[in-house]
């Protein structure tokens, strides 16, 4: 029997999140000759999103559309995805390790009575058997896992497995499936976002994160400016969130978001273990801190010892010249 892998696309505000395409690449790494079936759940016409999944490597897509599926609920999305999985009987399922993925996949795995390998950051092959690499102990070590269940069910951490190149000439079947979600008990009527718009923190390639050293909400302004010139997003330590300099939606760390951007600039952050848990796997870390003994320098690739209010404007000025 050849492999069939279902990739669950994640839609936010009418657009597929990049991790959906990374999940397609992950499916191909699990089995290069598998048929990859996309699932897109939402409201209204989902055909454009289905087409985009195909352009990123999916062979065909099933969409489930209903007004009660406009916004994620574990009950509604659970029923929709489960109906598609039951139709397909896949050998694998892949989704992003996002807030939604973390909520949805354990429930699906339990219903399917299968295991779940969560938060994979890499996939290797051992004689054709996929081996999943995942961080443990808050990113201080990595373990390698193989699947022993009937279904290889995996969530992947955003920004770790590059998507395949988009190929607009790819075509594939798109089927709409009716799933009766009229009577679900929870419907989200409205989402009021606290976080600023712009680049999504968990998918950003560049993050400028501020800590208590930034000293005030106003002190964050130069960080936003630096993030803008770098095309990145702003994050924060819990220290900064607790001090009400910024919203908790920006918090990075053990009890915040886990991020792995190409470039992480830690500004006025001491480098507490709980903060490192959320960012220490970033590809390049730059720390700006006036205390040369600060722990953040132990994980930084580049360190600038100095006052952030002097260093950041100079950085912005130099970057603008490029
Ligand atoms: P501080 O430790 O106060 O550091 C401020 C830094 O700014 C200092 O290093 C200082 O030298 C520097 N500084 C000051 N002024 C300037 C200046 N003008 N220019 C340059 N540098 C300057 N924390 C998280 O971040 N994320 C989490 O998810 C998280 N989860 C937690 C969970 C638990 C259960 C617990 C107990 C704690 C958690 N924490 C978390 C809190 C964590 O322990 C630290 O208290 C917090 O990370 C400290 O934030 P900070 O580095 O911004 O502040």
UniProtKB/TrEMBL annotation:
UniProt keyword annotations, A-Z: Electron transport, FAD, Flavoprotein, Transport
Electron transfer flavoprotein alpha/beta-subunit N-terminal domain boundaries: 5-196
Keyword Transport annotated: yes
A Pfam family matched in the record: ETF_alpha
Keyword Ribonucleoprotein assigned: no
Family annotation (InterPro entries): DHS-like_NAD/FAD-binding_dom, ETF_a/b_N, ETF_a/FixB, ETF_alpha_N, ETF_asu_C, ETF_asu_C_CS, Rossmann-like_a/b/a_fold
Similarity annotation: Belongs to the ETF alpha-subunit/FixB family.
Alphabetical list of PANTHER family matching this protein: ELECTRON TRANSFER FLAVOPROTEIN ALPHA, ELECTRON TRANSFER FLAVOPROTEIN SUBUNIT ALPHA, MITOCHONDRIAL
Protein name: Electron transfer flavoprotein subunit alpha/FixB family protein
Organism: Oceanobacillus longus
Classification of source organism: Bacteria, Bacillati, Bacillota, Bacilli, Bacillales
């Amino acid at each position: 029997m050849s492999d069939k892998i279902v990739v669950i696309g994640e839609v936010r505000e009418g657009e597929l999140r990049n991790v959906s395409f990374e999940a397609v690449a992950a499916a191909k790494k699990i089995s290069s000759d598998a048929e990859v079936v996309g699932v897109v759940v939402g409201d209204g016409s989902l055909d454009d999103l289905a087409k985009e999944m195909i352009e990123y490597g999916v062979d065909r897509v099933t969409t489930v559309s209903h007004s009660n599926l406009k916004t994620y609920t574990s009950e509604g999305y659970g029923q929709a995805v489960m109906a598609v999985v039951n139709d397909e009987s896949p050998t694998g399922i892949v989704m992003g390790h996002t807030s939604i993925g973390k909520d949805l996949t354990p429930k699906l795995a339990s219903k399917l009575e299968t295991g779940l390998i969560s938060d994979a950051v890499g996939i290797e092959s051992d004689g054709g058997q996929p081996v999943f690499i995942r961080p443990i102990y808050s990113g201080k070590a990595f373990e390698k896992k193989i699947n022993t269940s009937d279904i290889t069910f995996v969530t992947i951490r955003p920004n770790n497995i590059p998507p395949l190149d988009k190929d607009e000439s790819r075509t594939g079947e798109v089927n709409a499936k009716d799933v009766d979600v009229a009577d679900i008990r929870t419907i989200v009527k409205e989402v009021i976002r606290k976080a600023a718009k712009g680049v999504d923190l968990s998918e950003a390639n560049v993050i400028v994160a501020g800590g208590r050293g930034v000293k005030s909400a106003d002190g964050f302004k130069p960080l936003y400016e630096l993030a803008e010139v770098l095309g990145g997003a702003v994050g924060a330590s819990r220290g900064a969130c607790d001090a009400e300099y910024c919203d908790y939606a920006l918090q990075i760390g053990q009890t915040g978001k886990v991020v792995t951007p190409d470039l992480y600039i830690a500004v006025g952050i001491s480098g507490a273990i709980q903060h490192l848990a959320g960012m220490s796997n970033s590809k390049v870390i730059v720390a700006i801190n006036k205390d040369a003994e600060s722990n953040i320098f132990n994980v930084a690739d580049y360190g600038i010892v100095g006052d952030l209010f002097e260093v950041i404007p100079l950085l912005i000025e130099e970057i603008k010249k490029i």
